[in-house]
Amino acid sequence: MALTGVLRPGHVALRVLEMEPALKHYRDVLGLIEVARDDKNRVFLKAWDEHDHHSVVLREADEAGMDYMGWKVDSPATLKKLAADVEQSGLATEMSWIPAGEHPATGERFRFTIPTGHVMELFAEKAIVGNNCGTDGQDINPDPWPDGLKGIAATRFDHCLLYGDDLDGSVKLFTEVLGFGIAEQVMLAGDKKFMIGAFLSCSNKAHDVAFIRQPVKGKFHHASFELRSWEQVLRAGDILSRTKTSIDIGPTRHGITRGETIYFFDPSGNRNEVFSGGYIYYPDKPVITWYDESLGPAIFYHDRKLNEAFLSVFT
Amino acid sequence: MKHTVTIENTGETFRCDEETNVLLGMEQLCRKGIPVGCRNGGCGVCKVQVKKGQYAKRKMSRGVVSAEEEASGCVLACKIFPQSDLEVEVVGKMARAIVAQQSASSDFGFTTTMKTNKPVEEK
Fold it and tell me: Where is the 2Fe-2S ferredoxin-type domain (chain B) (predicted)?
């Protein structure tokens, strides 16, 4: 296969203050499907068009935010190789192997902390449960979408935007060790080599993870879920208003990645995004560069300025 | 039953019922004074010190409000519900929000606060 190594964001584990309101949000408003609960009271969910067992893990805690983000790699051999590479790079700390089965239906995971303070995992195996579109068995003569979808009905967990201090270190680890490419970058106009934002892809997507430099460790800006059209984004806006969900901004468009977007908050203050659009990324695509003086339209293309919450509100 | 909430920093007052959190009460009346963030107890932007009055509260993130702060009335406006007239002072992340706002008009704060790491190497 042509797409190898790290394939995609496989899961994001979020801390919520109260599970029941969180489930109402992620299941009934965002439209994820609950697939499992475990004896640690974690709830595992997936978006309808994902084939793997789960992509979102919720855990009740005293503090909101992200526990970790997991990346699916192409094989157990690649998992071993990349784990060794991460260890050898000297860029990661707190490395450990999480045994198979700690997440239901999931193989062993290699866990490490990156220079911006975020916990990341690599894994190769997760049970395939399918998208329920097949009409004559799984993936046989499928319909375009299944019955029984709820709410916004996002198609997949797509990416996270994360805030942290050592942006250079995390970008180096993702690009030089894990094989990601830089789709877009934000640099200081007054110091053109100084990076303040990086939008990284391991696939054909405009980004699979993004980092913005902020004087914090391990902070979570948002987890994003994909929709298939601008009309679906507008429909999501209707659903968010009808359910009195706390909306941050939008519907609008990002300059970076060209995605059409809404930012909103889960009941614990963790920011979510639903988005559509963007372009197809290839590893040989020239890097798009924005300078900080254009950060307004880079982030919110229509308003052409950041809202107050963009830099100051995170968990 | 409605109570009067006073924001000491600005002198702004508004009426808020017992089932509505103070931040939402302010927003519903298009009033300003307490910074608005996630509205859900996670980000800490709307932190206030309650100077006077009784309130009910709901769970707020320990990442932004310590148990000691919560016990001393330093709480999130989005998670408190007035049970009497309230006087609150905006504290905590407001300073940061204001700084972010001011720097957003000039250099987004990146030049002054972010240059702790080495620039990326030239390729």
Answer: 3-94
Residue B95 predicted with pLDDT over 50:
no
Contact B43 A266 (CB under 8 A): no
How far, in Å, CA of B42 to CA of B64, rounded? 7
pLDDT tens track for A86-121:
999 999 999 999 999 999 999 999 999 999 999 999
Residue B80 lies in a domain: yes
Catalytic residue among A108, A184, A226, A273: A273
Number of structural domains found in chain A:
2
Q: Is B11 on the interface with A (CB under 8 A)?
A: no
**Cα A1 to Cα A7, A18, A283, distances in angstroms:** 11, 43, 15
Other C-beta atoms closer than 10 Å to the C-beta of B121 total 8
User: Which chain A residue is nearest to residue B44, measuring alpha carbons?
Assistant: A313
- Within this chain, do residues A83 and A184 fall inside the same structural domain, yes or no? no
The yes-or-no answer on residue A54 being catalytic is no
Q: Which residues of A touch B121 (CB under 8 A)?
A: 193
> What domain range is A248 assigned to?
157-312
B114 closest CB neighbour out of A213, A266, A269 = A213
- Percentage above 70 pLDDT, chain A: 100
Does A30 reside within a domain?
yes
Q: What is the ipTM of this complex?
A: 0.93
